[in-house]
Structures are given as C-alpha cells and as structure tokens.
Amino acid sequence: MDIPLFHLDWLNNRMLIALIATVHALINHSLAVGFLPLMAWLENKGVMNSGPTEITDARWDKMVYKMMWTAFIITTTIGAMTGVGIWFSVSLVSPNSIASLIRVFYYAWFVEWTVFVTEVVLILIYFLTWKNSNKSIKAKTRHIKFGWYLSVFSWVTMAIIVSILGFMMDPGNWKNDKNLITAFTNPLYIPQLLYRTPLAMVLGGTLALFLASVFTKRGEEIRTNTFKLISKWILCWLPFAVAGSAYYFKVIPETQLANMNVAIGTQAFQQWYDIMWKVILGATSIILITAILGLWKPKMLRAPFLAITLLFALAFMGLFERVREFIRKPYIISEYMYSNLLREEDYPLYKKDGLLKWATYSSTPVITKENKIEAGRNVFMLACSRCHTTQGVNSVVDVFDKMYGSTGKPFDETMMKNYISNLHNARAYMPPFPGNKKEIDAIVAYIKQLQITGEVLEGAQETGVTLNPEQSVEAFKATAEKNLAKEKTDIENIKKK
Ligand code: HEC
Asked: Which residues, at least 6 apart from 62, have a Cβ–Cβ distance to it below 8 Å?
C-alpha cells in the first residue's frame, strides 16, 4: 500500500523468491550446515588413522580437501549470491512483510549478520590454510579445530533464520505481547530446528557420498573406507530427521493442516500433499538402503546411484519447503499480514472506504465511469498481483476460465462479482477481498477486459508511479492547516466565554 509494487507478469512474483530461496536453502543445508562438521570429522579421521611418523594420511587428506574445495566454491559463489538474492527479491516483491519482520527481528538479524561474517572469515581460514596446516601436527590439530568452529557458526546462522520462518507460520504469543523474545520463541521454532538440523546432516552425508564416488576410484580401499564412515554418519542422523519431521508436522497449527486437506484445498494442494508423502517415504527408504549398503557392501555403491540418492534427499527437503509456503496461506505472517501484504487489522478500514483511497500510489482514489478499468487494474495490483499474473504463471484469466469449464466464452459478470466477494470462503488459501463493492465492480471490468485483449500488467518498475492526491503532502498539509485553524477558533471561542 505504501510502496510502489514491482510486478513480473510472466514468471509470477512469488516464483522469483521461491527459485532463489530454494536454491539457497538447499545449498545452506547440504553444503554448509550438514557438510562442514562431516568434513572436520573426516579430516580428523585422516590424522587418527595415519602412521606414527606421519601427520595425516596424505591420500585421505587430499580426498577430503577436494570435497571441501567443492563446498567452498559453491557456498561462496551460488550460496552467497542467492543469500543476497533473497534480500533483493523479497524487498521488491514483498516489501511490507520483510519490513515487518525486520522491525520484529531487528537484533536477531543483527546478530545473524555478525555470525555470518564470522562464518565467511572462518571458511576462508579453514579452506585456504588447509595445505599449510599439513606441515606440523600442531598446525593440523588447530586446523581441525577451525573446522569445528566453522561448523558451529554455520549452524547458528541457520538456527536464527529458522526462528523467523517459524514465526511466519505461527507467531504464537507475539500477537498479545509484541516483543522479540516472544517472537523468537514461537511455537514452531524448536520443532523446525529439531527437524532441520538432522536433515541437514543427512543431506550433507548423501552429498559427501556422491562426492567421494567422484574423487576416488572404484575398488580402491580409500573409497570403501570413506563410504563406510559417511554411511555411519547418515545412519546416526536419519532416525532423528524422520522423528524431527514427524514432530514438526504435529505442531503445525490445525487451520494450516486443514489447508492440506481435500475438503477446502485445491486440486493443487491435494496433489502436493500426496507427492510429498510419497517422496518423503521414497527418499527415506532410498537413503536408508544407500547407507546400509555403504556400511556393509560399499563396493556396490556407484556414482549414478549415489546421484539419485542425493536428488531424492534434496527433493525431500524441497517439498517440505514447498508445503510450508503453501499451508501458511492466506497469510504471509500468520494472523497478522495477508499474502497480499495487507494487515488483517486494517481490513475494516479498506472495506469501508475502499482500498484505493488509502493506497499511497493510486492514480484512482475515486472510481468514476471513465477510470473504471484503470481503477480495476490498480485494485488487482493491490489485492491479487502478489499471487496472480494477468497472462503468465497462475494467470487470473486462466483460473477464472478453468473454473467456468474452460469454454473460452466471455466471463459472467455477476458470477465473478459473487465469487470475488466470497474469495476466502470459496478457497481458504486466498485472503478475503479487501476493498468495497465499487472496487469489486472495477476489478471485474478489468479482468473481463484482460480476457478479451490479452493485455499484460506492468509493474511500477515499468510504469512509474502516480501519487494518490489524497495521500500527498499537500493534502495532509491542507488537512493539518484546516484542523489548526479550527483549533485556534475553538480556543478563541473558549477564551471569549
Ligand atoms: C495468497 C495468494 C493469492 C491471492 C492474494 C489471490 N489468489 Fe486467487 N488463487 C491463488 C491460488 C494458489 C489459486 C489456485 C490455483 C490453482 O488451483 O492452480 C487461486 C485460484 C483462484 C481462482 C480459481 C479458483 C478455483 O476454484 O478454481 C480465482 C477465480 C482467483 N484465484 C481469483 C483471485 C482474485 C480475483 C484475487 C484478487 C482479489 C486473488 N485470486 C487473490 C492464490 C491467491
């Protein structure tokens, strides 16, 4: 409402965030949180298993170094860039929600930033001093310690962000007691942490198995030994990952679980839900089988099979993220802000006066016959464009067309009006329509025109902005002056009396 809206009509705004954030989360969990402690552990094994005159087993150490090289390159390039990319994309697409989160989690994010910078410094030290540290046992021991410090800092960055993710699903007591501590200790925080930590370890393990198969030769003793160790690692963490995900599911709020149910969910929900369970079951079994083979029949494991295991493990996590984003709807911050970036508590005002009157950048504060289509476009931008495009992914023309049986006939105006005024009851994952009756008329006229002309909605990055004259500085000044003048006469009147 207060910030001009960026819009991508072909890809869909949410998809932009989803693509960047999913890549980032997968890299973070598999190559940082879960992988780094495994590397420190394996590096240490090289030292323990070396001969009495050696500092470490040189071949073993070289292999672990190569694995760490992979993690270093990917985390410091794609990992770091997608991390910054999340900030860019959410500030463009979802400025109000990120602004709210920054206000609530200000100090948590500040700490997160210092921890992150430390993590970057530690990964530089750990990776770049590796070769030099092989010169003395003292240096090697210190190097391994740095691996452990790095692992701890990497886990802490995740542990802070997870609280914010939990908060968005269920802010808990924060609704009554608005402070950082209640926000941080939201009901979903610990369950998510208990699920993500072992999951990251399992992901790190499956990735390390695959890399070990790339960096060693078939039949080599070093390969079987590495497979055995990593398989042990996976078998230790897998039960906790499964238990953690079950616990996490148990504490998801009822209303959100209902979102997964056929009764009110769309076809899409039901499909995702079914796929999710199949993938979770499939992934858990294939990871389990891989780890058991790795421990007892390591020679049977080959790179292509390990690549498939890795993909299943990544899909396991990817689907959890997808479902998490899905079930939070219609909210972006549960029971506080809807996905259209409007706060629930402001709804009565919008319903009474209309959305357009209170939008800072609206070219049509008052709807007339002449500006009806333009007003409809403005309403669509404010109320629907965070989830729907006009002609691209999840296009509003397509969803209406599908709902009316894909006949391609012009949409029925009355049916559309009824549907939009009932949006949230029809499909619980959509927020209620925020505006007044006139605005429903306008958005219907606009969508009908979209169907005929196929025109594309451009975001503020293309069209620029028009300030709502009712929300301009001049307008506020005029009101303030009027109020001041009135106050003055009131005071004078009182004095006279
Ligand atoms: C929270 C995001 C969100 C917002 C905001 C939103 N929608 Fe939707 N809408 C969806 C999703 C997701 C679907 C399901 C698409 C599917 O089933 O493939 C959908 C489906 C629809 C459908 C088809 C429903 C059906 O039963 O098949 C219509 C019509 C629709 N939206 C109109 C609107 C209009 C008009 C607005 C703005 C006033 C709006 N939506 C706002 C997410 C949203």
From this structure: none
